[in-house]
Design brief:
The chain has 100 residues and is mainly alpha-helical. The chain has one domain. The chain is 63% helix and 4% strand. The chain is built from 3 helices and 2 strands, in the order ααββα. It has a two-stranded antiparallel sheet with strand order 1-2. Strand 1 and strand 2 form a beta hairpin. Helix 1 packs parallel to helix 3. This is Lycopene cyclase domain-containing protein. Its main location: membrane. InterPro entries: Lycopene_cyclase_dom.
Length: 100
């Protein structure tokens, strides 16, 4: 399995869970905050992944990558912070108890 396929599956799961939380209060606000958090996390990922790859702390097998990069960081690395930014708040809202 390639990193692109794994990233696509994770993004689809995050999108499905976020969509499932659409009927909960303040959905638009939550999604706007998640988008802002995703942007910050992607910037941090770009900076620190590039530093770690440049320091040769880890490598990716080329045959599992799409070939697209932001600096030295493969594009697939950016799916994880995006998933976290949308998935965590959505799961939180879906699992919290509603006020009586």
């Amino acid at each position: 399995m390639t990193y692109a396929v794994l990233s696509a599956v994770l993004l689809l799961v995050a999108a499905a869970v976020a969509a499932a939380s659409a009927r909960r209060p303040r959905f638009a606000h939550r999604m706007a905050c998640s988008a802002a958090a995703a942007a910050v996390l992607c910037i941090l990922t770009a900076v620190f992944d590039n530093l770690m790859i440049a320091a040769d702390l880890y490598r990716y097998p080329a045959e599992h990558l799409s070939g697209w990069r932001i600096g030295l960081a493969p594009l697939e690395d950016f799916a994880y912070p995006i998933c976290v930014a949308f998935l965590v708040p959505s799961v939180w809202v879906l699992t919290e108890r509603r006020a009586a």
